[in-house]
Amino acid sequence: AQLSTPDMKLPIQYALTAPKRLCSIVKNLDIAKVKNLTFLPPNLKKFPCLKFAYDALSIGKSMPAVLNAANEETVKLFLEDKLKFNEIPKVIKKVLSKHTPQKGNISYYLKIEEWSKQMVRSLVC
C-alpha cells in the first residue's frame, strides 16, 4: 500500500510523468504521527463495478477476462465521448450477463477478450 498526506499533487505528478517517476513533491507521511487509520467496507451500490469484480473473481473461469475487456472498451468509449460515465456499469453488466464462463487456453481468452469488446461496441454504437 502507499500512504501519503492528503494532497492531489502526488497523483497528478504520477499522471503527468508516467511511465517515469520523479521524486515526490509532497511532504512525507510521518506514520508515528498518524493516530488512527479507519478502513470501512466499500459501498457496492455506489461502486457497482467493484461488485462486478468481486463477482467475476468468485465465478472465475473466463469471467474476469470478460470484465476486464468490457471495462477497457467502455472507458475507451467514454474517453471518446461516445458513452456517459454513469452508463459504464450498465454496459459492463449487460456484457457480463451475456457471457457463459468457461475455462480455456490462451487462444480462447484472446477470442473472448475480442468478443467482450465487440459486445460493448454493439451495445453503445
Automatic annotation (TrEMBL):
An example Pfam family from this entry, by short name, is DXPR_C
Origin organism is marine sediment metagenome
GO MF terms listed in the record are:
1-deoxy-D-xylulose-5-phosphate reductoisomerase activity; manganese ion binding; NADPH binding
The name under which this protein is listed is DXP reductoisomerase C-terminal domain-containing protein
Every DXP reductoisomerase C-terminal domain range: 3-118
Look up the record and give one Gene Ontology term from the biological process aspect.
Answer: isopentenyl diphosphate biosynthetic process, methylerythritol 4-phosphate pathway involved in terpenoid biosynthetic process
